[in-house]
Design brief:
The structure is a single chain. The chain has helices at 33-43, 57-63, 84-97, 120-129, 182-185, 195-205, 225-237, and strands at residues 2-6, 27-28, 31-32, 48-53, 73-78, 107-111, 114-116, 134-141, 149-152, 158-162, 171-180, 210-214, 219-221, 250-251, 255-257, 262-263, 268-275, 280-281, 286-292, 297-298, 303-305, 308-309, 314-315, 320-321, 326-327, 332-333. The protein is an alpha/beta fold and 339 residues long. Helix 3 packs across helix 6 (195-205). The chain is elongated and about 65 Å long.
Length: 339
């Protein structure tokens, strides 16, 4: 199989973290998030991955060698202007995959911000058995009010896509992972469009057979500060599955600590704490349920709770960072500040 990962989004919900770093390159437990997706694809037998990106190709080429799985071919599909999820898939197909695919071979498509543990081999078998044009991974959530709702019949054939209703009840939602036939992709306009809003509902009305495949493993959309923190915590607790814990650097007991980290005296780490490479922590700090990325310097007697520091931040002595603090790259907090 071959795959497309949609990584051209602006990451607006995670700003300011994404102002200087593409969202899929942000680390989860000191590994670029996209590396977890690539590992899953490689394990499923995918041999080639196309990254559908915007003009920021240099950010990717600078980092790719550090996490590219051995034996997995990765190419870029660069969009000169944003094409959305639908147009981005069609452009990647036309630019890279069209001449390299068998007629019956489906394409794996992943949104670049979903943390998912998906049995792609089983999903592919289900797709072929049902002669589907497209198969959508769906996940059941306890509250669908923030999402669109996917309705299907007893054979898991999709019968309707419902927009956000604001109703608070459980239901199945689009999990952001698809298997798409070539014939389906070739019906997508080579123009800015959304596969979720413009393509799936329209193609369903045309009578194309669209099916749903239930995700029975871990799923999380890391697109907000809360869900980004949650992904760290879930992985740290083992809730995201044992496969995701490989190759993470653990140190200081149960805490996640990168390379060349230096800590002062009487530092207290509580809950899920993740420290990147070259981090410096001063004396008598209390850090709880927080993420501190590479190169940050934290002064003495700093208190921090459920906070995220991007790369190379500097926190002055005696500062207080309360729950929900989110600092962009190279931010400077002066001593005795309260945020």
């Amino acid at each position: 199989m071959k795959a497309i990962i949609l990584v051209g989004g602006q990451g607006t919900r995670l700003r300011p973290l994404t102002l200087t770093q593409p969202k899929p390159l942000l680390p989860i437990l000191n590994r670029p998030f996209i590396s977890y997706q690539l590992d899953m694809l490689k394990k499923a037998g995918v041999q080639q991955v196309v990254l559908a990106i915007g003009p920021q190709a240099q950010s990717w080429t600078n980092h790719l060698s550090s996490f590219k799985p051995k034996g997995l071919k990765i190419e870029f599909s660069i969009e000169k202007k944003p094409l959305g999820t639908g147009g981005g898939i069609r452009w990647a197909y036309e630019r890279v995959l069209k001449r390299k695919m068998a007629e019956i071979e489906p394409i794996v498509v992943l949104n670049g911000d979903i943390f998912i543990h998906l049995n792609l081999r089983k999903m592919n078998l289900f797709h072929n058995e049902n002669k589907a044009e497209a198969t959508l991974a769906v996940v059941r959530v306890s509250d669908i009010s923030r999402y669109g709702h996917v309705k299907m019949n007893s054979r898991r054939k999709i019968i309707a896509f419902l927009e956000k209703t604001g109703q608070h009840h459980s239901g199945d939602i689009n999990a952001g992972a698809y298997l798409l036939n070539r014939s389906f992709v070739e019906k997508i306009k080579l123009a800015p469009c959304s596969i979720e809003i413009d393509c799936f509902p329209r193609f369903l009305k045309m009578g194309l057979p669209l099916y749903s495949f239930q995700v029975d493993g871990y799923w999380n959309d890391i697109g907000t500060p809360l869900t980004y923190l949650k992904a760290h915590a879930d992985l740290w607790k083992g809730m995201a599955g044992k496969n995701f814990r490989k190759n993470n650097g653990f140190g200081y007991g149960k805490y996640i600590v990168g390379k060349n980290v230096k800590m002062g005296r009487n530092v207290k780490l509580e809950g899920m704490v993740c420290l990147g490479d070259q981090v410096r922590i001063g004396d008598e700090c209390v850090i709880k349920d927080s993420i501190i990325l590479n190169g940050c310097k934290v002064g003495s007697r700093v208190q921090m709770n459920k906070s995220i520091l991007s790369f190379y931040c500097v926190i002055g002595d005696n500062a207080l960072l309360s729950e929900g603090t989110l600092l962009g790259e190279r931010s400077i907090i002066t001593p005795f500040s309260k945020i």
